[in-house]
Amino acid sequence: MTVDHAKPAAVGADRPAVKRTPAPKARRRSDRDGKWWTPWLFLAPALILFVYFKFIPMITAVTMSFQDVQPYLGNQWVGGQNYSTVLGDEAFHSAIWHTVVIAVGQTAGSMIIGLALALLMEGQSKRLKFLRSAAFLPVVVPIAVVAELWRIMYHPTEDGMLNSILGLVGLGPSGFINDPDSSMISVIITGIWRGAPYDMMIFLAGLAGIDRGLYEAATVDGASRWRKILHVTLPGLRSVFSILFVLAAIRGLRVFTEVFLLTNGGPNGSTEVAMTLIYKLGLEQNRLGVGAAGAVLLFLATLVLTLFVQVLRRRRDA
Amino acid sequence: MRKSRWIGVGLTVSALVLSGCSAGPAGTNVAQDTKAPLELWTRTTPGGAGEQATKRLAEAFEKATGFKVQVTAIFDDFETKLAQRAAQRDLPDIVMNDVTQVGTLKSQGLVREIEQGKIKHASELTEQALKSNQTPDGKLYGLPYSAQASALLIRKDWREKLGKGVPQNWAELADLAKAFTTGDPDGNGKNDTAGLNATLSTKRGYASWYFSNFLWAAGGDFITETGGGKYKPAMSTPESVAAVQWFRDLGCKDNVIQPGSVTMPTPATNETFEAGKAGMYVVGPYLLPRFDKSLGKDKYEVVPMPKGAKNADVLAEGLSIFMMAGSPNQAGQDAFGDFAISADGQKIGMEGESAFIVQLPVNKNVDITQVRSDPRWKTYAEIYAKSGHYAPSIPNWTPVRQDTADTISALVADCKLDLKAELSKLDTKLTATLQQQGISAS
């Protein structure tokens, strides 16, 4: 058991005995914690908002996933039919596969580039502060603007921005988002461009927490820069990796806006992900029950993934 | 700890009760109040000319009848926002949107039936426009207030520079498209122009919308009526296959369709034409004011689409007024519809050089040539009357349009795909859709 998990009384037991009059039990509790409802009072505004705007819609979505939703004709209970429709749909299978590919690609790409950027920009110099802020800009730019920028850059002719660069090295022109063979990687690159700076900032925070003495000891031992990264930096960033992995994986599974704006799932369904398909089923085709079933399945997948990572992390920490 | 658990349980139960309470049907028997203001949604750009024209019509209506109207313009994801309001059981009173929505809205119970007897001017509507708003059972679920059909817009300056005539058939159309693509019609010395401008994104089913201008003229069809209100898929018929093959070759063999078309919705496609990147565009009259301003009236011409293998049919569309369910002011809804389709209402809707919402009038007593002197409008009116082809009235056209858009867009995006196999797969999907709607012939 770690000190964090020890009971306050047990910690107190190690201290030198102090003579004082023992207070009545109820009063001691009140002094330390206040009334039982005090924390709830502080939490109430947030809880009310969460209940109304988050939890009730979530529960409603679960209810809807078992119904044929027709708000003005009356919803009909259809049991698990919506789930069997979604699970039996080939489009849903390929959308799930595309979602996994995008999640893995964006997560890995963002983490590798984010770590590389963090290692390059670690330090106290004022110039680095400026560079870090500049590198962080893609995160604060609205996703709609990002998608439009990349759409322009991906223009599929020789005079397109990226194609003119490819032309300089004798490649291209590529269709990028307009070609089913290159659309997926194009979407992933856009996601990495936006996600890497975010990962970089968290890595920078993690790097600041690594004991400098370990680097000095490694230098004394004659370790190369690469060895220091491998044996000091990466182990020191273990908890950062697990947090980033969970955040990035959830972000990857819920990917929607950049796909919707860049390709709308096309061409030929090559970038259709779970969220764009759910959107189409639910809101474009007005099959809200089927869309809700897809959303519930995605929620469960995210939940399982998060729990899996948490269990894995606790086992390693234990 | 125990108390906090109880609070958690309480919150969950409350949420369940609340969500359960809101699951019943609603909106059919709402208490009526003729003084309740009418919330009107129109599918047009907020702050744009269409919104101004709708507000002008609403003001004239208020003055004439005393009812109050609040106009809201929405363009992006209009149907999505409407679906959200439907899920909240709080629909606007009136919606002005594409006529192809009639089946979807009716099957979802979002619109109420219109009693023609209560609409004084309904007898003045053209047969073509009125029929497009009827469901297969003959009932009326929308009131037409504007009609349109597609025509071919050609960069006149480019055509004349290359010494070409106006295309009279599809071979000449393809030939002109090739010349626009390879002949440097803008004279900038770069190979940066395309022959045909096409909206082939799958968003809202745009690719299907656009391709219908070619499909019907070739004698093909999305679905065919077999009698008694039953339909069978028709995308694998020889005529449809030939139409798809011809159109696909424009993109895959001749490379005359503008680059990036398969991910372009209408706004991006419009910009391509007005930026001088494409030479021909099949589109309705609503874009004329925009192109006159951005491109110049003298730079392009409006001509009927050349005849295909069967005829010169083009997509006819209409805009309709839908009386939404759950309104507390049904009398106001009827009065607005009646005013908008009357000769006076139609003329108000047509006023102005750019801010108008009625493209071609649907009232028999209104002659477009007397309202608009520009001969291009007469061209559009003639195309609509002779070759206007509406999408069939089935319970829900949206999935048909979306499935066909997916396939058409895919076939142009991926030239390696087996055309016949893809169209056959599409027919299987269409059969399932027709069965789901209870109108399948098989």
Notes on the structure:
The complex is a heterodimer of chains A (318) and B (442). Chain A has 318 residues and is mostly helical. Chain A contains 15 helices and 2 strands. Chain A has a single domain (80-317), classed as MetI-like fold, CATH 1.10.3720.10. Chain B folds into 2 domains: 9-148 and 316-389, D-Maltodextrin-Binding Protein, domain 2, CATH 3.40.190.10; 151-314 and 395-436, D-Maltodextrin-Binding Protein, domain 2. In chain B, 43% of the residues lie in helices and 14% in strands. In chain B, strands 1, 2, 3, 4, 11 and 12 form a 6-stranded mixed β-sheet that branches. A 4-stranded mixed β-sheet of chain B has the order 6-9-5-10. In chain B, strands 7-8 form a two-stranded antiparallel ribbon. In chain B, helix 2 runs antiparallel to helix 13 and helix 9 (238-252) packs across helix 16 (398-413). At the A-B interface, helix 3 and helix 14 of A face helix 1, helix 3 and helix 16 of B.
Question: Short description, anyone?
Answer:
The complex is a heterodimer of chains A (318) and B (442). Chain A is mainly alpha-helical and 318 residues long.
Furnish the topology, listing elements before pairings:
The complex is a heterodimer of chains A (318) and B (442).
Chain A: H1 8-13, H2 25-33, H3 38-64, E1 67-68, E2 76-77, H4 81-87, H5 90-121, H6 126-140, H7 143-153, H8 161-168, H9 183-208, H10 212-220, H11 225-236, H12 238-253, H13 257-262, H14 274-284, H15 288-317
Antiparallel strand pairs in A: 1-2
Helix pairs in contact in A: 4-15, 5-9, 5-12, 6-9, 9-12, 12-15, 14-15
Chain B: H1 2-21, E1 38-43, H2 49-65, E2 69-74, H3 78-87, E3 94-98, H4 102-107, H5 127-131, E4 143-149, E5 151-155, H6 156-161, H7 170-182, E6 194-197, H8 206-215, E7 223-227, E8 230-233, H9 238-252, H10 266-274, E9 278-283, H11 288-296, E10 300-303, E11 314-323, H12 330-341, H13 343-350, H14 368-371, H15 375-387, E12 388-389, H16 398-413, H17 419-436
Parallel strand pairs in B: 1-2, 1-3, 6-9, 11-12
Antiparallel strand pairs in B: 3-11, 4-11, 5-9, 5-10, 7-8
Helix pairs in contact in B: 2-12, 2-13, 8-16, 9-16, 16-17
